[in-house]
Amino acid sequence: MADFPLAPGSTIGILGGGQLGRMLAQAATRLGFDVAVLERDADSPAGRVATHCIVGAYGDTAALEQLARLAAVVTYEFENVPAQAVTTLQALGVECAPGPEALAVAQDRVAEKQFLNASGVATVAFASADSAAEAVAEATAMGAPLLMKTRREGYDGKGQRWVEHAADAAAAFTELGGVPVILEAPADFVRELSVIAARGRDGSTAIYPLAENHHEHGILRRTLAPANVTPNVAFEAEKIAARVLKGLNYVGVIGIEFFEMRDGRLLVNEFAPRVHNSGHWTQDGCAVDQFEQQIRAVAGWPLGPTQPHARVEMLNLLGDEADTWRKLAGEPDSRIHLYGKRDAKPGRKMGHVNKVKAL
Ligand code: AMP
After folding, report:
1. Domain boundary residue, one of 184, 213, 234
2. Is 122's C-beta closer than 6 angstroms to any atom of ligand 1?
3. Which of 269, 276, 277, 278 has most ligand 1 atoms within 8 Å of CB, for mutation?
4. Which residues of 257-292 are buried (b: 16+ CB within 10 A; e: fewer)?
5. Ligand 1 centroid vs 287 CA: distance in angstroms?
6. Is 21 in the pocket of ligand 1 (CB under 6 A)?
7. Which of 26, 46, 73, 240 sits most deeply, having the most CB atoms within 10 A of its CB?
8. Full residue range of the structural domain in which residue 146 is found
9. Domains identified in the chain, total number
10. Is residue 316 part of a domain?
């Protein structure tokens, strides 16, 4: 069992080798930790900056055993880690943060909304359906239009269909693969906001200011932070974040996405049990960014400050937009973060730029 606070020189394990894993690994090594990444791809963004890269699937017991031998603590860079991988690691004596309960809630859009509502946090009205007939019945009862999403494994707007008439719910159900779905009432929001928050092993919390997000084709394009919000909205977001963290007995960083409604209410759309794209602004807007915060939390260190020292516009660099690095490098206010991905497929997140203005 790990001894907290974890001493520099210890190894932190990360499941997943994408850009979030890479930036977590960079933050961990800056604090003097070694990093072991478990990832299927031998040439991953995180694997290339980690001390150790174990190549294997998350269900590969030998790979998990190798990770358990190296790492004192394991965390993840994405939410769809199989529960089995976490229980295997725990059985091998490794601390996993966030814990399996938080993962289970975040992996299922229905369980997530049920947890939120039971915690006194508002969401859109919703229903679940496991068959085409049930989808039509629920859509008829709720009234269209509705947004149908797969209960599990959707991201960046994938796995979603608008249902304009209740009768169309059967076709949408089939198009989404015939898997269990959630039906959501449309949120008539004025803005999308998000908050990055953290909870330490001692139950302390640290909450960054709200960010305003703009999506295109379901993918985050641009984040403005700190968002220009009323003190009431800021207070509401902090209250919700604190409730969610406590309710999940959470350790680590969480990203919570909100719809800001016309009347100023905040509805939670979803949360991600990990560092979040809408929190990349903290790298150049705060002394301790979300990546270091996650490492501090899982290592049992005190959480860092969250007040901003700059206003940041974060732009994702998708596909060949990353080729603009030459121009960006000449802009004094642009901080460039590139993920080292070899293949610039259209829409793929290749990097981001934080355009910084001192507050
Ligand atoms: P999600 O995968 O749940 O984050 O959804 C992706 C995007 O779809 C969100 O950022 C919103 O722009 C939009 N969206 C999701 N759910 C709803 C909803 N119930 N009503 C309106 N728009 C939604």
Report:
1. 184
2. no
3. 269
4. bbbbeeeeebbbbbbbbbbbbbbbbbbbbbebbbbb
5. 31
6. no
7. 46
8. 125-184
9. 3
10. yes
Q: Which two tokens stand for residue 220?
A: 């985050």
| Residue-level pLDDT at 2 | 86
Rounded distance from Cα 41 to ligand 1 centre (Å): 30
Give the distance (Å) from ligand 1 centre to CA of residue 346. 22
Walk along the chain (359 residues) in steps of 10 and give the mean pLDDT of each run: 94 98 98 98 97 96 98 95 93 95 95 98 98 98 97 83 96 96 97 98 98 94 98 97 98 98 95 98 98 98 98 98 97 98 95 96
Query: Does the residue 72 lie in any domain?
Result: yes
Burial 89-101 (b: 16+ CB within 10 A, else e): beeeebbbbbbbe
Shared domain check, 173 and 146: yes
Cα separation, 221 vs 212, in Å, equals 11
What confidence score (pLDDT) does residue 276 get?
A: 98
